[in-house]
Amino acid sequence: MTQDIQANFFNLIRERQSIRSYDPSVTISEEELKAILEDAVLAPSSSNLQPWRFIVVNDPAVKETLKPIANNQQQVVDSAATIIVLGDKEAYKRADEIYDRSVELGMPQEARDAYVPRMLEYYRTMSEETARSTAEIDGGLVSMQLMLAAKARGYDSVPMGGFSHERLIEEFKIPSHLVPVMLISIGKAAKPGLPKSRMALDRVTYWNALTQE
């Protein structure tokens, strides 16, 4: 069983491609989209604050609204859904909710009571730049897991950074504490993605010190 899981994982990460051409006749049920997101939110996050927030766009009219915001990328309309991934700079405000639930699942109460106040003090005094960076990093972690979860269910995806943050914020009335991280379209490929190379490992990896290229 372990070998089968390993083989499936290694195949999965090699077969996943960024797909930009989708079959517009394919839909994904709300139940299955929720299942993909349930897998995605198992991703790690800073202090387990889970700052990711999602807007699932699967209504045709809303897709048309999103398309020009996403620089008229056709996959926004043709894919089954596009997930707007946001990062919450004020995720620490849900710390009590998260850690009370952790206690219910077995975390010792004394561990929770010792950690949460110190953690809250750190996040409340965090600079705007650091808060934004943390939300974006954690948003990237959940986004990659989301795409792998989609692929494991037979769906294709593409992450998009090419969109107007300002127009997205305005159109979807996104409050200032939420940071747009990326858009992810999900569906079934109408045609394969283009072959893409990866740089050799020794071109991007250093051991124990960063050496000059």
TrEMBL record:
The keyword Signal does not apply. InterPro entries: Nitroreductase, Nitroreductase-like. One of its GO terms (molecular function) is oxidoreductase activity. It holds the Pfam family Nitroreductase. The keyword rRNA-binding does not apply. Keywords: Oxidoreductase. Its EC number is 1.7.1.-. Residues 13-188 form the Nitroreductase domain. It comes from the Bacteria. Belongs to the nitroreductase family. PANTHER family: NAD(P)H NITROREDUCTASE YDGI-RELATED, NADH DEHYDROGENASE_NAD(P)H NITROREDUCTASE XCC3605-RELATED. This is Nitroreductase family protein. It comes from Paenibacillus shunpengii.
